[in-house]
Write a structure and sequence with these properties.
It is built from 18 helices and 26 strands. It has 674 residues and is of the alpha+beta class. Among the domains are: 141 residues, Glycosyltransferase (Alpha/alpha barrel); 282 residues, Beta-galactosidase, Chain A, domain 5. The strands form six sheets. The chain has an eight-stranded antiparallel sheet. A five-stranded antiparallel sheet has the order 6-7-8-9-10, with no helix packed on it. Strands 11-16-21-20 form a four-stranded antiparallel sheet, with no helix packed on it.
Length: 674
């Protein structure tokens, strides 16, 4: 498609635009909003000219300099060659994505450096994006584009380029960019949000048959499924940016803003009251940044203040809770589900400056790593950082994730228990545990499971690939993947949570999740006792109704670098990593067997060792696993376990910790004396 419109098209667009210059007061200041200072609306949608010097100073800081270097020193020649000779106009998933990323990066770098090479590359990327016949590869009724990712992303990139490049772009090119935002971007985003709001009116979503995307899912229920996922927020941000950019220029702009705001309000309930987010911390960052972007742009353009739509300070605490850095991996996290790395911490920088929140500033400055230009855009060094209080070291989030820790450094100990309900991007991981100490993951949850059920490493999503319980080799209920990575029906619930003088005691019940697969299941509970800094005790209770079955406990090994291993040792096992080891003994069932194995996925998707403890056929199983963590090269202490029926007494010393612990399993909820 040419980058300049025909004369007829141009005149038609001009006439339509002229018809829509009136800005209605009810959309400039929607009901329930706070009218902001008029000064907030005199600058740009993303920043003001006076912000440029602050950003130029920000990129010099050690926290931001490495990321800035990747932006500034990107291979511009390779990007130009891709745009010139490789990009295919029917490849949205990868080629349009790369073009959009090139545009966002080069426009932002140009804004701070005025490097003519960056401007030239940005213009090449703009030209290619304008040539796409559609801006996304999903259609309604086989005809109309719906914008789930690429259309809103392209819209955001185009609006950002207009903001950052400004007068450096010719006037006719700016008009064409705005015209295509209004034709290819905003309507696709609007159609998506309308379909999510009124799914019964959707005439069928599907893939664009002209696009080369290799996977195909059943999209018939996607208007319902995606309504509660991150793929709703991206079109919200795209539509809001389009509406705010074209407000006063296009007759639909107010309608776009209104739909974006309605949709943002509806989506806000996906966050817990404490700011937690069910899709995992990786998707939390992506989602929260786009939600904040939409609300910030609306405020800057109209003064309508919805920047407290969710508990943004609480969502910074959620990021703090989910962080679990290890040696060499500052972005490591509690990766329940698909979120295998910390999300975009830029939202913490925005929260800090918008809400004057010192803890959010601590997250922006210390948690994860910077990997988004929005962190540079929003970070304000004048906000004073506030270190997290000790009370945040043991938390039960509103979505029933339980985390205990000794701190937030790479050598801190962290134990996490996955309870709670279903969510998009989840795994079959109820009652699974992640444990890290001395800079290493010692009880693991494998990274990078497949997004398509047709790929062999879809297996990494299933219960057998987690540090969890199997009953007769079967995990709990999970879907078959034909509709994507959507939620299952599996539920778990925290039955008890206690911070006992800094130690963590918690129990989660996943009975219903297993009963959906094995109807005779009467009880599946896991209790976690984290005796800080480096002792972890697990108590698993499984009860069946009629048919005696064996039970397996799986313990996954972190082997991302081919340096993780496991050995069976008598009544227990040892897991080794370069900087730490875990030694465990298992009690409670006569005739237990312990073996090591490797998950059956092709080696190109990693080698994933595990330990399996099997309790022989029975109607009731009570298994107590006592783990100690130790620095590499040092000996573990000795913890002795004496069993008297349903009572387990643990005593001994490990490192500086002397333990005298009594666990009674006479009731479904164990009682603990320390």
């Amino acid at each position: 498609m040419p980058t300049s419109p025909s004369r007829r098209t141009f005149l038609k667009r001009g006439a339509v635009a002229a018809a829509g210059l009136t800005v209605l007061p009810h959309l400039a200041f929607p009901a329930g909003a706070q009218k902001g200072d008029a000064a907030a609306r005199r600058g740009g949608l993303l920043c003001d000219p006076r912000d440029m010097q602050r950003m130029r100073e920000t990129v010099k800081l050690p926290r931001f300099a490495p990321y800035w270097k990747t932006l500034r020193d990107a291979d511009l020649e390779a990007d130009a060659a891709f745009l010139r000779t490789e990009l295919q106009l029917n490849n949205h998933a990868h080629h349009m994505l790369r073009a959009r990323l090139i545009l966002e990066r080069s426009a932002f770098v140009y804004a701070l450096t005025h490097d003519a090479r960056q401007l030239d590359l940005a213009r090449q990327a703009i030209d290619k994006i304008l040539q796409y016949r559609r801006w996304d590869y999903f259609l309604e009724a086989g005809e109309h584009t719906i914008g789930l990712q690429r259309a809103p992303e392209a819209t955001i990139a185009m609006v950002s380029a207009l903001e950052f490049l400004g007068p450096a772009l010719p006037a006719d090119l700016q008009k064409e960019m705005e015209a295509q935002i209004a034709e290819k971007g905003a309507p696709a985003c609007y159609r998506t949000l309308y379909g999510m709001k009124y799914p019964e009116r959707v005439r069928g979503w599907g893939f664009d048959p002209e696009d080369v995307y290799p996977y195909r899912f059943d999209l018939r229920r996607w208007p319902l499924i995606l309504n509660s996922t991150n793929l709703k927020v991206i079109p919200i941000a795209g539509l809001m940016m389009a509406g705010c950019r074209l407000l006063g220029k296009h007759p639909q702009a107010e309608r776009w803003i209104d739909m974006a705001l309605q949709s943002a309000r509806a989506f806000s309930t996906m966050y817990g009251p404490d700011g937690s987010y069910d899709e995992g911390v990786g998707y939390w960052g992506y989602t929260s940044v786009h939600l904040a972007l939409a609300l910030d742009v609306l405020y800057r353009r109209t003064g309508a203040d919805h920047r407290k739509l969710i508990n943004f300070p609480g969502t910074a605490k959620y990021a703090l809770a989910m962080s679990a850095p290890t040696i060499g991996r500052p972005q490591d996290c509690i990766n329940f589900g698909d979120a295998w790395t910390m999300g975009d911490i830029a939202i913490a920088a925005w929260t800090a400056v918008t809400h004057r929140d010192g803890l959010a500033q601590y997250v922006a400055e210390n948690i994860g790593t910077v990997h988004s230009h929005y962190a540079i855009l929003w970070y304000d060094p004048r906000i004073k950082s506030k270190a997290p209080a000790a009370a945040l070291q043991n938390v039960r989030l509103s979505n029933d994730l339980v985390i205990g820790r000794t701190g937030w450094t790479e050598r801190s100990s962290v134990a996490a228990l996955r309870s709670g309900g279903p969510a998009n991007h989840e795994h079959a991981d109820r009652n699974s545990v992640i444990f890290s100490a001395y800079g290493e993951r010692l009880l693991h949850d494998p990274y990078k499971a497949a997004y398509s059920y047709t790929d062999p490493h879809w297996l990494l999503r299933l219960t057998q690939s987690h540090t969890a319980v199997l009953i007769d080799g079967k995990g709990h209920q999970y879907h078959d993947g034909h509709e994507g990575t959507n939620a299952s029906w599996a539920e778990a619930h925290v039955e008890s949570f206690e911070d006992r003088k800094g130690d963590l005691l918690a129990t989660s019940d996943a009975t219903e999740a297993y009963r959906l697969v094995l109807p005779g299941t009467q009880l599946v509970r896991r209790s976690v006792f984290f005796l800080k800094p480096d002792i972890l005790v697990l108590v698993d209770r499984i009860r069946l109704k009629d048919n005696p079955l064996p039970v397996q406990l799986r313990f996954q090994v972190d082997n991302f670098d081919q340096k993780g291993s496991a050995e069976a040792e008598g009544t227990g096992f040892r897991i080794s990593r370069p900087n730490a080891t875990l030694v465990a003994d298992v009690y409670g069932s006569a005739g237990m067997t312990i073996r090591t194995g490797t998950l059956p996925v092709p080696v190109e998707h990693g080698v994933h060792p595990f330990v399996e403890v099997q309790s022989p056929e029975a109607l009731e199983h009570t298994l107590v696993t006592v783990c100690t963590a130790q620095q590499a090269g040092k000996e573990h202490g000795k913890l002795v376990v004496q069993q008297n029926g349903p009572v387990f007494e643990i005593s001994g010393t490990h490192n500086a910790r002397t333990v005298r612990m009594r666990i009674s399993t006479q009731q479904d909820l164990p009682t603990i004396d320390l």
